[in-house]
Write a structure and sequence with these properties.
Keywords: Antibiotic resistance, ATP-binding, Nucleotide-binding, Transport. One of its GO terms (cellular component) is plasma membrane. One of its GO terms (biological process) is response to antibiotic. With 291 residues, the protein is α/β, with parallel strands linked by helices. The protein has a 7-stranded mixed beta sheet with strand order 5-6-7-3-8-9-13, sandwiched between helices. Helix 5 packs parallel to helix 6. Among the domains are: 144 residues, Rossmann fold (3-Layer(aba) Sandwich), CATH 3.40.50.300; 42 residues. 33% of the residues lie in helices and 27% in strands. The two termini are 24 Å apart. The protein is elongated.
């Protein structure tokens, strides 16, 4: 399709007097993997539920695959793949049995056995869903989400509660889908490392609005928090926060006429910068874009 796969403009959601989304702007192009990153309670799940057509927005313009999700019918919904944050249904069904059953709702589904092989679940094909490990269950969730050949895949907090091994396996799976299938993916997460690994672009959602959006590398320069420059002056420890530590260090060098006693520059990690941003420790950067 021409144009963005997802387009939201001034998306707002209210529950009574509480405004959960306060003007979200977001675009996702065909074949992109975009992460909606933010702390718990930022509005990530509400945003994705509106885009999926499961929740009616209060106001704003939204199109997904060229259709207002509030008016999308069965044909539109069949073009979506959805992996919910928690899905514990059908524990007694067999893995192949459940996948084959869901495939029957689509006009041109993937072959169940081929899909199980792609997902690394062939050995578990006859096993009850309720006996799968966390990582295996999540791979089955993705299989159920893509069995109908979706154009767009939604992943809501896909690795919540995973151990490190299961997380690595799931990340490799999503990367394979994006690379080999050219699938458009929108995922929500509160894990910066996960967003950096999987996403072409990251949109940071804080306080119900996207404060900054861009590539992981471009994002680093936009959200970088101030560095700390520490030194000793007349034996007294001094500390100053600055966005240009090199300049301050040079000024101190000139002032001291040589080496600065106890000089130390502490540059924040991208993770600390992100944490400062969501905690409101830095100035608002709403609407800024990173290359």
């Amino acid at each position: 399709m021409s144009g963005p796969v997802i387009r939201a403009r001034d998306l707002r959601m209210r529950y009574g007097r509480a405004e959960v989304l306060r003007g979200v702007d977001l675009e996702v192009g065909a074949g992109e993997v975009v992460a909606l990153l933010g702390p718990n309670g930022a509005g990530k799940t509400t945003t994705i539920e509106i885009l999926e057509g499961f929740r009616r927005r209060s106001s704003g313009e939204v199109t997904v695959l060229g259709t207002d999700p509030g008016r999308g019918g069965d044909a539109w919904r069949a073009r979506l793949g959805i992996v919910l944050q928690n899905w514990q249904d059908h524990p007694r069904w067999g893995v192949r049995q459940l996948l084959t059953h869901i495939a029957g709702f689509y006009d041109r589904p993937r072959d169940a056995d081929e899909l199980l092989e792609v997902m690394g679940l062939t050995a578990q094909a006859g096993q009850a869903v309720g006996r799968l490990s966390g990582g295996q269950r999540r791979r089955l969730d993705v299989a159920l989400g893509i069995v109908g050949h979706p154009e767009l895949l939604f992943l809501d907090e896909p690795t919540s509660g995973f151990d490190p091994e299961a997380r690595r396996e799931f990340h490799a799976l999503v990367e394979r889908l994006a690379r080999d299938e050219g699938m458009t993916v929108l995922l929500t997460t509160h894990d910066l490392a996960e967003a950096e690994r999987l996403a072409d672009r990251i949109a940071i959602l804080v306080g119900g609005t996207v404060t900054v959006c861009g590539t992981p590398s471009g994002l680093a320069s936009v959200v970088r928090a101030a560095s700390e420059v520490c030194w000793l002056e007349d034996g007294v420890p001094r500390t100053e926060r600055t966005s240009d530590p090199s300049r301050l260090a040079f000024e101190l060098h000139r002032r001291f006429g040589g080496p600065v006693p106890g000089l130390e520059v502490r540059r924040p990690s991208l993770e600390q910068s992100y944490l400062d941003l969501v905690a409101g420790k830095d100035e608002p950067i709403t609407g800024r874009r990173a290359a």
